[in-house]
Structure formats: structure tokens, C-alpha cells
Design brief:
By secondary structure, this protein is α+β, with helices and mostly antiparallel strands. The protein is about 30% helix and about 20% strand. The radius of gyration is 28 Å and the shape is globular. About 40% of the residues are buried.
């Protein structure tokens, strides 16, 4: 028998150790893979969220209420166009589109095989019916009638193709068809016709279908098993919609404290629209994940002034008011700092915006404010500020601003009214100073509506009107943005209104809710959320 040498022993030992190490590595990798498989998203759970107010309408063609669009838009109803991760407008239920050189003929080629919740296929006749419907002057509360008023005719040119014929170019028509407020969702023509053009039960093409609505209680949606509208890599609202949950339940809870308590009890998985005074404390907790941030369509809080008023009509008086305002402090007072202070008519997340633009704005400077005020002949006459407490920041920004204006010698008095009265008086121009908020728009033309001939507060500036008219006659995005910046510069000189801040969105989620990303501040993609428990 051959005697084993030390080298043989060491070689045999190393071989055994190598095999053991290899086996260990295999087991570890197998465990990792098994763990990954176990951690992969599963179907079957029920997602429970909250609503700060109840729905107002099940027909998105007839409402601009944010809550209606937030719950039903992109989940039940889907539009022809939508936004990618960088907030560029892209085709959605359209496969492709083409605009004629003169900007008067838009050809839309629909995706084939897209199913409504009643399993009928979306075709050109449905798209035409919906595009005609939202322009119908007899449709109560039509949200996009004015935006599409220059559409002359919609023609079916193929079972999957429509042509939109315009009397004048509508440079923001793709934005209008992509909007998440007043959503031009696709609905089945035959079902609407059978119900006297009324939405009895919402039927769309979305990843979830309508189940029930218990007024002032909850809205329930269920997974649409035959969903076929979107696939591919996730890119904003584009891409695959996984539909992990069996059901989505949105509970109406109007009191902020009630929503937070329900989250603590485990009755809710997520709570959007957090009460500002509680956000800081919520962020310190380990049992919830809090996300806050600026969305590109964020509402903006501002002060309008009546141009028929003897002092407010004077640019020096308006400049005195503007230089007296510390926008950072107003943002802290109104939304506890959860807003972006700016004077800009251009939302800070849109391509036309640049931080350099802030250099043009009236900065907080009480001494300069007093200099402008002295030029106006103002003798301390009382000026009324109209506001409402229905939206807390709308009232709180007044309290902060009133003290700042008093510091330079402007005497104001606050008038508080209910929201319906507040809204009506805005539209009639029945106010002196008006505390208000505007819904943010993604396209420059709509965002700058307050500088149009149709404004409610008596502003008349031919230069501003000419710039907007130029915007209405160009399809070039770069030219649109250049004109947008010119309007911005004009607001810094003219001070037709005083913007204070753009509000931040917020949400608290249980740690087991996965799939929520920054884009979801713009609009929650609940179909891609899942539970990891």
C-alpha cells in the first residue's frame, strides 16, 4: 500500500474543502433565489386607501373635481394620450398619430384589441363618440368643451382610425387629450346611447373596473381580468399594469385625524393628502413611510387683485404689495413648509422653468415696498381680502400676508365666505384682493389662462394677450416655452397677481406597501403597488 504523503493529505483536504465551499455557495445562492421568489409580488390582496372627500361624479367627461379623476382616471377610464416619466405627452390608447403641416388635421390610429370592461373592443366609433361628447354644449358640466371648441368635426376614416378636423390650430390638443383633470376617457358608444347618454355604471378600458359606490362611505373597484391596453417597460403612465390587487377600496374620511387613526389601527394601507401640522411627526415614525414632494401639476396659491380698484389698478401699489411678501414665511404659515415658494407662473417642474428666472421676481424687501407705496398717494384706506376656510392654506396665507402688508402701511380687512360664494365671486370679479388657488396645468397655454382676455379680474394688457395669441399659433414646444418665459417676465414687471407657492403632494403608506415611486406623487399607479408582508 502506498503511504500517503503530507502533500496528498493537503490536496485531499483542500479538495474536500473546495467541494464543501462550492456546495455551501450553491445552497446560499439557492436560498437567495428562493427568498427572491418568495419576496416577488403576489396577486390577491385588497388595497385600502382613503378619500378626503366623496366623489362628485362618475362621468369624467362632466367633472374637473380632482377626487373624481384621482380615483377613476387611469384606473377605470383611460385616455388616448398620457405622460411618460419625464412628463412628455405620449400616445396611450393611440398606437400612433400624425398632425398635418397646417395644424388643422390630427389623425389618430387606435391600438387594436383594447377591451372595454363589457369586453367590447375599443374602435374608432367609440373614440369619435367620446370626442364629440366632450364638446357637446348640451352635456352638463363638460370639462373640456372650451379647450376643444376649435374642433370642427371628428371623422371615422377606418375601424381603428379617426381624424380630428379643426377650424383653427389647437396647439395644446395633445395635452388636453392627456389631462388627468377633466379626463377625456374612452367610453363605449353603444352603452352610452342605450342609457340616454348617461353614465349609469362606469365602463372604461382601465386595469380595474367599477364595482360599487356607497355615497359618503366608499368606492370599490375590482381587477379587470381581460385588461389589454398597456404592456412593456414601465415609463410614467406607460408600460405594463400588473394589477396585483383583487380589489381597490377607497374610504371616504373627511377628517384628517380620522384618516390617520384608521392608518394606525391597520384599517387603511395608505393615506394621501396628509394634514400639514402632522407631516413632520409622521416622518419620524418607523411604522409608516411618508412621501412628500412637488408634482408638475401642483396647485398654486396666490392673491388676485381687482384692476377696477383705485389703488390695486396701480402697478406701483401692486409692486409694494409684492415686495412686502416673504413667500418662504407664507409657505411655512400656510402649509408648514410643504410647498415650493415662488412667484413663477411657470410650475417649477416644467421644461420652461429655470431657477435663474427667480432673479427677476419681486424679492422680499420691506424698504423697497414702502418706496413704491409712497408713489401711489395711498393714505391708509382699508382694502378687503376675500378668502375661505374650506381650504385651510387659502385662509392661512391671508393671515401671514395681512401682517406683512400692515408692516409697510397697507391696511386690510379679511372677509371669510363659504367656498361656493368664494368661487362665484371670483368668476364675477366681485372682490378687492382675492386669496385663491389654481389647479396646475401641464401645458403652457392652459397654465397661463389668468393672463388671457378671458380673465375674471379686469387685467388688460395687449402685450400679454399678443404673447398668448402667438402661443395659440405654434406647435413647436421650444417656441411655446420661449413665449411662456416672456409671459413670466411680464408678470414680474406688471404684477397682475402675486403667486406665493406651489403646494406639495403627500402620502403615508404602511411599510409593506411596495411599488410607490416619486412619479406617483403626480398620480398614483395603484396597479403596480403590491404588499410584501
Amino acid at each position: 500500500m502506498k503511504r500517503e504523503t503530507r502533500g496528498d493529505y493537503l490536496g485531499r483536504s483542500l479538495t474536500k474543502k473546495g467541494m464543501a465551499l462550492a456546495l455551501t455557495t450553491i445552497f446560499i445562492l439557492a436560498g437567495i433565489l428562493a427568498g427572491s421568489a418568495l419576496a416577488a409580488p403576489k396577486r390577491g390582496d385588497i388595497y385600502r386607501g382613503s378619500m378626503a372627500t366623496d366623489l362628485t361624479n362618475l362621468d369624467l367627461h362632466k367633472t374637473q373635481a380632482q377626487i373624481d379623476n384621482a380615483v377613476l382616471g387611469m384606473t377605470v377610464y383611460e385616455p388616448l394620450f398620457t405622460y411618460d416619466e419625464k412628463f412628455n405627452v405620449k400616445p396611450f390608447l393611440c398606437e400612433s398619430y400624425k398632425m398635418s403641416p397646417d395644424g388643422l388635421n390630427l389623425t389618430l390610429n387606435l391600438k387594436k384589441g383594447v377591451k372595454f370592461h363589457n369586453l367590447a373592443e375599443l374602435k374608432a366609433e367609440d373614440a369619435k363618440f367620446c370626442l364629440d361628447r366632450v364638446r357637446d354644449p348640451n352635456l352638463p358640466g363638460s370639462a373640456q368643451r372650451n379647450s376643444l371648441q376649435n374642433v370642427k368635426e371628428v371623422m371615422v376614416t377606418d375601424p381603428y382610425q379617426v381624424q380630428v378636423i379643426m377650424s383653427k390650430p389647437i396647439p395644446n390638443i395633445l395635452y388636453t387629450l392627456a389631462t388627468s383633470v377633466g379626463t377625456v376617457g374612452m367610453m363605449p358608444k353603444k352603452v352610452l346611447e342605450a342609457n340616454d347618454n348617461k353614465v349609469v355604471k362606469p365602463i372604461g378600458t382601465g386595469p380595474y373596473e367599477f364595482a360599487s359606490w356607497e355615497r359618503d362611505s366608499k368606492v370599490m373597484l375590482k381587477r379587470f381580468e381581460a385588461y389589454s391596453s398597456a404592456d412593456g417597460p414601465v415609463d410614467g403612465y406607460l408600460g405594463k399594469r400588473n394589477r396585483y390587487f383583487d380589489q381597490l377600496i377607497f374610504n371616504v374620511m373627511k377628517e384628517p385625524a380620522t384618516r390617520i387613526m384608521a392608518l394606525d389601527r391597520g384599517d387603511l394601507d395608505a393615506v394621501p393628502v396628509l394634514p400639514y401640522p402632522q407631516i413632520d411627526d409622521l416622518k419620524k415614525r418607523k411604522d409608516v413611510r411618508v412621501v412628500t414632494g412637488l408634482a408638475p401639476d401642483a396647485p398654486w396659491y396666490l392673491f388676485y387683485v381687482n384692476f377696477n380698484h383705485p389703488y390695486l389698478s396701480k402697478v406701483d401699489f401692486r409692486k409694494a404689495m409684492a415686495y412686502a411678501l416673504d413667500r418662504k414665511e407664507i409657505t411655512k404659515a400656510a402649509v408648514w413648509g410643504y410647498g415650493t415658494p415662488t412667484f413663477s407662473i411657470i410650475p417649477p417642474m416644467l421644461p420652461a422653468y429655470s431657477p435663474d428666472l427667480e432673479k427677476m421676481t419681486p424679492q422680499y424687501d420691506p424698504a423697497k415696498a414702502k418706496e413704491f407705496l409712497q408713489k401711489t398717494g395711498y393714505k391708509g384706506e382699508k382694502i378687503k381680502i376675500l378668502t375661505s376656510k374650506n381650504y385651510t392654506p387659502m385662509y392661512d396665507q391671508v393671515v401671514a400676508a395681512q401682517a406683512m402688508w400692515a408692516a409697510i402701511g397697507i391696511n386690510t380687512e379679511v372677509e371669510v365666505v363659504d367656498w361656493a360664494t368664494h368661487l362665484a365671486r371670483w368668476q364675477k370679479g366681485e372682490h378687492e384682493i382675492l386669496s385663491f388657488a389654481m389647479i396646475g396645468r401641464m401645458d403652457p397655454l392652459s397654465q397661463a389662462w389668468a393672463l388671457s382676455k378671458d380673465n375674471y379680474y379686469g387685467y388688460k394688457n395687449q402685450e400679454a394677450f399678443a404673447i398668448r395669441e402667438a402661443m395659440q399659433n405654434t406647435w413647436d414646444p421650444q417656441k411655446q416655452n420661449d413665449l411662456f418665459r416672456k409671459l413670466y417676465a411680464l408678470t414680474c414687471e406688471e404684477v397682475p397677481f402675486m403667486i406665493n407657492f406651489y403646494i406639495h403632494n403627500s402620502i403615508a403608506l404602511k411599510p409593506y406597501v411596495k411599488g410607490y415611486e416619486n412619479f406617483d406623487l403626480f398620480g398614483g399607479r395603484v396597479w403596480n403597488y403590491y404588499f410584501e408582508k
